[in-house]
Amino acid sequence: MRHVTTMVLAAGILSAGLPVAGFAQDAVIRIEAKRGEAAANEAAEGWRRKFDDVVTFPLSGGWIGIALGPLSPEEAEARLAELRAAGEVPVDSFVAEPGRNVELTPVAATPSDNAEPMQDGGAAATDPENLQVNPVTAGGQADGSEAVAEPAAAAAGTYIRLQSLRTQAEAEEALAEWHGNFPDAGLWHLPGGWYGVALGPLEEDTALAWLAAFKQADLMPGDAFTSDAAEMGEAVTPGEAPDLPAPGEPQEMPPMDEVQKALRWAGLYEGDIDGKAGPQTRAAINAEITGQRLSPDPGTAMRKLIERRAAWRDELGLTALEDEHTGLSLTAPMDKLQFDRTERALSIYAPKNDSGAALILFSQPGGQQELLDLSGLVTALGWVPQPKRMIEKGHVLLTGKNADHHGRAEGWVRDGRAEGFVLIWPAKDTENQTRLAAEMSDSFARHAPARNDLANTPEHDDAQLESVTGQP
What we know:
The protein has twelve helices and 22 strands. The protein is an alpha+beta fold and 472 residues long. It is elongated, with a radius of gyration of 35 Å. Mean pLDDT is 82; it is low at 1-18, 20-24, 109-150 and 454-472.
């Protein structure tokens, strides 16, 4: 240790807020580094509010180290262990030994680019070769000869490593592509010389859970992995900590048919509502998890989706409609509809309070030909303008839109009957129309025998039907 008189002198200078020269046996706890004086002073001032022995010192490349000290190496190691255990300093903090003539500047003073060393025979105070890293914590030489020339380490936490590339140009190009799905991703110059695209920092359990979820959805490669901050090297483009919630306690998956209905409502699933977790259903579940990013747990994510759908149904005023004339039932927005009339195979619900919505239910004995005849009638009356047709055995779907309204007609051949519905909805409300059509299709069923068992498609009074759509 230095002589008592030297220690007293150094203490006096520190209390005056002036730079002091470090000695070979001095040590500091390095907690952060910033590029440029302004950023370093701001960060150091924040640390000073927590610790009364914060100092700064120059590194290479315009970086400035922020540390606690000076201390003896033994004192520094012991104190660092205590601070880490208490969570008061970043986990990647380490003990460093300033070389001869390196200035340690209390945060009250501004480091001077032209400061002269206080000891003879040494290099300039800004020479990074004079800052030695403790060999126990940072891999330096036992004689303290290795220089620290590395800028700030990664923020504490766990990172999801997406891709590694040999050159910075390649890595920056890859980062731009990754930003399509992960706008918070950053770029790091890894210790081995390569460049890595990564997402973080996160808590370890959060990073692992979301890594698995993103892999399951094919949004991350199979060889993506997690790394601690100490393995990330130098930040080139740090990115931002992603807003990914912790996994929490796993929840039981809701009934699969309810999951499928909710996924269809969200526009993610077009398969049958069969209650089976097939490939389409699993892909839709993964898309919901990684799209909304509310939870990496499938059960939790599906419950949240079902809750969103239920809230939307309440907001839109959806209720079960049981039509006695056709014997059909389905979920419908009855706050926007009112019963108008029946016409043989049809039950017609007109707009309520100028909502711009209308619903036509149809049911008659017959098969595929009768279903096609009904779809032709729908087109002729302009209920589905310029329709796109999907015709399969036992099923017909027509969709179309003009400046006034969306039109959707869907019909099935079931139990010897051609039956279905036509939904007319305001053109400006595409999102609700799409979701509502899915709700109606999924809920469409027969609740009672029809009162209109006619053998043929009825004739219609075009003048009467015009009142439903406003179309001649």
